[in-house]
Amino acid sequence: MGTKILTLTLIAPNRKLPNSKMRWIALAIALLAVMFLASGSVSSQWIGWLLSLVAATFWANFARLDKDTPRMLMEIFYLGASIWGIYNWI
What we know:
By secondary structure, the chain is mainly alpha-helical. The protein has one domain (20-89). It is built from 3 helices and no strands.
């Protein structure tokens, strides 16, 4: 019997996800949102929360398409937090 090797890969080479390019765009939007939120500039906080809202909407939809209910619910909660963040900063 052969030796079993446990590997961890971040990208599954044999799996093409639907909306792959849109997922990269959503990731870029999320990273941009973090940059605005972490900048320390109070006047631009609402922009960070707005971008978070857009990214969370994309990711909730991707989770729905992947039939990943827990991830979809997590993104919906984050979407609600983003709306609350926008309200607090405007």
